[in-house]
Amino acid sequence: MGMVVGALAVLAAASPARSQDLADFDYENLSFRGIGLDVGVIAPSRVDSDLSVGLRMDLGYLGPGLRIVPTVGYWSSRMKDAEVRELEVRLNELVDRSSPDGTPPADVDLGIINWSDLVLGVDGHIVWSVPYGLLTYLGAGASAHIMNGDGGAIGGTFIEDLLDTVTAGFNLHTGLEYPMNDRVRLYGTLRYELLGDLRYGQVSVGTQFMFGPAAPGEIR
């Protein structure tokens, strides 16, 4: 919520004349205009914070001020110790605590579990021009998350199967862009992603290379 409020405050400061230029612009058809590469940091609810990499494709404007941006992202990190321990406790509860000779079995030890996420998504940006030659955007997106879990103790087990999933996700995001020239832009994005029982915030920065024309209101 704080992210959205902050983004709205930036939008409120936009120059009315320059914002109107971009809001009035409309492509008859979407077209590939550029590609961006970025790196960032994720802070998930169930795994340790780690680096992420991403790619985005600028398809231009579907409607007034509405930019369509397909994305591809990837991150891999270690599952938090508390999460692994909770899973071990649940597994122990399923195990018969006494063997036929009365000797209790050893506790389940899952060791280190890694979890990775390949993200395929489409974002919609509401774009405004603001002072100092900047563009700002506020948007939402839908995504498919191809999750993969691995670890020495879980390989080939049902636990690995549980972690290997394809899950739908939803995100809210906001960001800033700085057109350095007609062909190169710098951008930064703040994103919050929700999928199943995993949620994470993400901050990323990147460079976009433009191949198509800029829209009115995007030019410094």
Describe the structure.
- It is a single chain.
- This protein is α+β, with helices and mostly antiparallel strands and 220 residues long.
- It has one domain: Porin (Beta Barrel).
- The chain contains four helices and nine strands; from the N terminus they run H-H-E-E-E-E-H-E-E-H-E-E-E.
- An eight-stranded antiparallel barrel has the order 1-2-4-5-6-7-8-9.
- A hairpin with a 2-residue loop joins strand 3 and strand 4.
- The chain is elongated and about 65 Å long.
- The two termini are 30 Å apart.
- The N terminus is likely disordered.
Strand percentage? over 45%
What is the CATH T-level topology? Porin
What count of domains describes the coordinates?
1
Order of helices and strands: HHEEEEHEEHEEE
CATH class: Mainly Beta
Q: Supply Rg.
A: 22 Å
User: Strand count, sense and closure of the main sheet?
Assistant: 8 strands, antiparallel, barrel
CATH architecture: Beta Barrel
- Poorly predicted parts: 1-20
Tell me, what's the shape?
elongated
Query: How many helical stretches?
Result: 4
Mean pLDDT: 81
Helical coverage, percent range: 10-25%
Strand segment tally: 9
